[in-house]
Amino acid sequence: MLLLRLILIASLAFGANEKLTPEQRVELIRGLSSEYATVKVMLPRSKKALDYDLGGKSHKEQWDEAAKERGPAARAGDLVQITKVDIDNDKITLEINGGLKSGAKWYDHVQVGMGNGGGQQRGPSGQATLGTTLVVRFAKGVPAVDSAEMKKLLRPLFDFDKQTATAAYVDSLPPETKKAVLEKRVIEGMDKDQVILAIGKPRLKSRESKDGDETEDWVYGQAPGKITFLTFKSSKVVKIRESYAGLGGQTVDGPRPVKP
Description:
By secondary structure, the chain is an alpha+beta fold.
């Protein structure tokens, strides 16, 4: 297993693979976003994104300095979540537990610190989020790596192999909702956490109040191409619209609500 990983690192580091395609980019973001993992080493908090060296330990000095200044974001054995994935020409940036931010978030119910480090239950208290940000750089540009290969490269830091809180949560969902989440699509009746598990965070959000009823709209995609509009009421999806910008503006109705 170690030999295979070294071969994979070498091929990526020296640009042996083709460059990432738009389709592979989407798969990589979807395959890593909202994933849970068990931390194998201490992850420090840092104002600046932490560089992670795939082939060696050149990041150790930066990590040690960050740990001295702000302490750990997670210790070995803690459960963390990848809350955002950004892909640039030569790097992949992973936001862990919301990054270095403050305030309660949608994932605040997650227990961080289930292992040796003891940890904190994140609730709606508005306490600071214990997170950080990692950057994986590629000298000759991000290659055609998929989410499974990326998880292998991150094995020195994270264990994705055990059944995670994500898998346990998905297994507990009603059949229609579970099927939709696994198929990366949204159906009416989903709550916000389930939507994010299925298709990630929205590009835009907006709220509207009319006659005492408050709704929230989430927007995915951008022109040219498919744009998806989700309308929430009482934190549940009540309407789904898909329009095809630049292709005639066709609109289709969303699936029927999930029956209780």
